[in-house]
Amino acid sequence: MFKNLFNPKVKPSGKEPRRLWLDLGDLGDLVNPAGPHEQWQDHGMGLLRTILHQNGVMTDMFSTRQCTSWEEVEKRMKGYDMLIMNVRSYTFPIAYRSAQIFKKVNPNGIVLTGGMHATVALDEMLAVPEFDKICQGPGENIIVNLVTNPDAFPRVILGVGAKSMAEWPMIDRTLWPEPASKKLAAKFNWPLEPECGWGPPPVATILTSRVCPWQCSFCNENSYIPNMGRRPVDMVIEELNYLDETYGPIGSVVIHDSMFFQNPSWLEEWLDKYPKYANKTWPYWAAARADTVRQWPDLFEALVRKTNWSTVSIGFESGSDRVLKILNKECTEEDNYFAIDLLTRIGDDMEAKGLKPPVFWSNIMLGIPGETREDAFKTMRMIKYTKRIMPSISFYAPYPGSALGHQIIAEGKSLMSKENYHRYPDDEKVKGIDYQFYRDLLSGKYDDEINRGLATIRQQRVNYWDALAKA
Fold it and tell me: What's the confidence (pLDDT) of residue 7?
């Protein structure tokens, strides 16, 4: 059974303050979104609101994604005593503008903030006077006391998290924002989530682990939250079955872990129990690394074949050993091609048997400091060599909290700021990078040169511009 052991019930004394939890995202993303991923829900907000409500601390909620203008945001903020926000780097511009509006319409109100940006860029958070309290790190075991008695805490607070995800309650998904237009609501299947190209709708998104233990130089996740125990397999299956029976039927699952394919003993238990005890062996998206696939190929193949791991997300990032070393990826070109060849073989065999073959969803980075044109050509060759791939290509972004990001920022080469953490795909993010070359590369201008380096061309597409995604 799911636990609720975080805090004792809080008994309100006197008039209960009006608290607003503001879900952050680009205006209009839950009205008329540009793409499916803009509609994903915030598990952190869902978890913390669930803990608050289970302890008798009630909050109202709306999302900037449900609004189409800042005037609408302002109107909906009036009359609240407290504003609570989970701030990521790419929502920081929205967070500080929202705080300014909140203080304008509620001069005596208090603003509580937390989230990744509070840990990786505390200086930027401190520079916003409207942020009254800033919580760094996880908040599961502090959120109730912080919200009910904020004056007892200093401005900067060190969060307290659970030792294991087994301690987490099941998220009450009705605490997530709803789609804000009839057109979107018709295909959203709220409180489950909409189809995004990885599997049939409705989609159940879920976490089984938190934080990737590797130390890639472009990633800031490891600087945010310490490792914690993984969610038990039985609890994951129990939650999926509950969602299927309560809000479903589920069409497919997205396992939002930064790294699903780790901890072989957990994976072996998943391999045994998911096909046996889930209401259905739903197809799912989950993440791996090329080197762990190479380390445990038999386990990987069994999971793909027997648990319906239909979309394998691997951040190949680059097809060049030089660049992979810059990124401290701890993977090699050989690792990448091993994983590609293995999934291709599995897919060919399944297709020959009349089964749907698995595909890669692969994060690819271009415009990395130190990358040469030949490095970029090798990356595009890798994409073209991969038989079944949905590439998600982005220009490298120097986020604070990452080793390479700190270096680029310290050298004065970052073009990112609190105004453009929004991750628009075509943003130029680092000084000195020839972005026109990369635009030409994605548009197919250099395909002849790329193809000359390939013995086998599996991807004939010449224009990858549509695959350019947020960094």
Answer: 43
